[in-house]
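Input sequence (605 aa), recorded before submission:
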Amino acid sequence: MARAPLLQLSDISLTFGGNPVFDGLSLTVQPGDRLALVGRNGSGKSTLMKVMAGLVEPDRGARVVPQGVTVGYMEQDPDLSGYATLGDYAASGLPEDHAWRLSVVAEGLKFRPEAPVATASGGERRRAALAKLLAEAPELMLLDEPTNHLDIQAIEWLEAELRDTRAAFVLISHDRAFLKALSRATLWIDRGEVRRREAGFDGFEDWREEVWAAEDEARHKLDRKIKAEARWAVEGISARRKRNMGRVRALQALREERRSQIRRQGTAALELEAGATSGRKVIEAEHLAKAFGDKVIVRDLSLRVLRGDRVAFVGPNGVGKTTLLKMLTGEVEPNSGKVTLGTKLEIAVFDQTRAALDADASLWENLTGDPLLKVSGATDQVLVRGQNRHVVAYLKDFLFDEAQARAPVRSLSGGEKARLLLAKLMAKPANLLILDEPTNDLDVETLDLLQDILDGFDGTVLLVSHDRDFIDRVATMTVALEGEGRATVYPGGWSDYAAQRPVQESVAKTAPSEPKLKPDVKSVAPAPRPAASGLTFTERKRFDDLPALIARLEAEIAKLTEFLAQPDLFTAEPVKFRKASEGLAERQAALAAAEEEWLALAERA
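Predicted structure, token format:
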């Protein structure tokens, strides 16, 4: 028998500021759905998710959630007012028998419950909201950019958690690898319409292009029909009194239909111009060491970056990737060692804090007020790669309209702020780009375009990102910061690093007393890839993921066992005892199954 939907939206219409966001929108979320919600920045993804969560009331239409179904929502900017610590917020409203889940989730997300709300960063606040949602374990989870501000290790933990959940979920994310791994169906918002495809995000771009090609063909046919009918209206009947007025009215209707069609938003006109050609050697770092008190950022790192290299820096949050970038460009002094910069360097920086943007100033003022972009004697012009451009025309290249040009930067979404920062960055010639978390908040189309631009860039790129797909597409070399000052250089992108890492780690474990090689790119050769096996690509991925799943199940079993060990729990809290016992039995069974699956795959491998 078919199960009732978890959530149903019917004929939803919503208008903000006189502009319709949705009109006549309907969709259904079924039990077991794993939906990727995709669309351009500003298309209404977050607004739709808030309608689904019941936080935004539509102008017309109905939202139906069956009685007893729980819906949880993780928003991008949670309101933590009234809570002293992040843990207080995450635990609020949480049933006592779910408290053990919060500690497990906090460990997986590297979330600090004791951190004061007053000093918490935006990333810490979002991790608290995500931890709260996962601990609540609703039947339907609505996740708005859950991977933003998570490092790759936490993203992989979250990916495993969502892969094994029984709950349905809807995901908004710019992280291609995350969406491909988890989604089974795709919701695409485009100009107020939501289309559903019963397949995951992998293949979305091909589907989108097919839809747009069909639209273009239909629009072309309509244009030809209007042109033919207009010719008839002027030339077809000499006697105006005999003109077929019905046909004239039909022509008017065709023109109205054409006017009502909403044109697709174009892509941002990203363009990079390399400055003067730098010297062949861009950066030479020798035996770098840096520490802040007891926290060691790096010890004895040697690295050579040549013109044209694309170097990605990866590692957990807080390990010191941004500090290392600043050392390599001379902004921060190492405790020991030295950095030599090459000749004729012109450096442009995209920083993750968006510090180059004045939040209280308008977009117009942020461009015209930049000394490097200012045109002498003009208040409406900016200097773009040596040419004068009107500020509004240049902003339109990055998909901002004239009304937004006078709005304060603080009114922009995260993706729009990233586009504005790219506009400033790309107006100046440069031959060394420093990109610190450029992928946060950008939509998939803009990420594609940025990748294409970097592919054709003649200069050198230093990149910090937690987007595995983006690193794979861009990087020619990966520097992994692994904590306690360890830094190792690997040829290639994220997948190359992931393939080589187990070999390196196994060598380190078998010979702990041998001196560690300096991570100098000059002496690094590609590590051998795992030998071919009888596993398919999917089975190999599962084989690689199972150890993390087994470790997580073991941690949850330990927490539940500790919880059930309370002497008076059975008599004082029989319901909690029953639920915890059921959860323990479920996880023990899952652990046994996972271990058997791993052994079977290991034999075949």
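Checked by second reader. Residues 206-260 form one domain.
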